[in-house]
Amino acid sequence: MPAVTLRQLLEAGVHFGHQTSRWNPQMRPYIFTARNGIHIIDLKQTQERLDEACAFLRQLVADGEKVLFVGTKKQAQDAIEEACGRSGQYYVTHRWMGGMLTNFPVIQRRLRRLLDLRAMQEKGDFERMGTKEANVHRDDLDRLEANFAGMVNMKRVPGALFVIDCKKERLAVSEANKLGIPIVAIVDTNCDPNEIQHVIPGNDDAIRACKLIVNTVTEAIVEGQQLLGERELREQEELAARERQEREAAERAAAAVPAASDGDGTAEVALEEFAGASAAAAPDAP
Fold it and tell me: Can you give the residue range of the structural domain that contains 273?
């Protein structure tokens, strides 16, 4: 069953592209028709591509990876921040700074600085400083919060990017492609789909359209998190079962060794026999 219906896509205005004069010819396969000088996107393809993107993201997250959402235009910010707050993914909604992916070690230092400043603020350190010094720290904190708040816990580059308006976010797209990070994106009729590995043809300018698609992929991500949790639980149960079996085997082996009762060396002999049997049963070293 599709993640969203054609009616939902239609009501959200996902089918409205840009003016025909502003189109990218590479988007021709995804365009259904033109009406009143506006390209109309083929919603059947949108539905199919959205399902494929959801399946990809669901499996990616189930494998333990994280997704970085990128959308700095006003129409995308609220939907992305709300979705990432619900799913625990990373996001950039203020400004993409060069090197966020390709120079990640430097970015990590800024993230650590942000965490340090937050801790200082919580402990009331700013109040104990001089006015000028405190203002410098507060300005630094505000700037870092604006640029990095959505990725403050990111320890390594993400497993994938989700992008709204890949033309506006071309720097993020370029960096991800350089590093071989797959990109899922809402691709409007003025964009180049060849730069995107998982194209979702659709309107990237309407708030309702962006929110519908963001919420849909977020549901897939949450499902992936549930699959990951179930797998980790199974692995923990299997490990506990193996440890229990090993413990029980050791207890049985210990019980099989007769206790020394008359000091005639019987226990020592039995221990030597048990050790010899264990060595013989052990696999040869490579």
Answer: 232-277
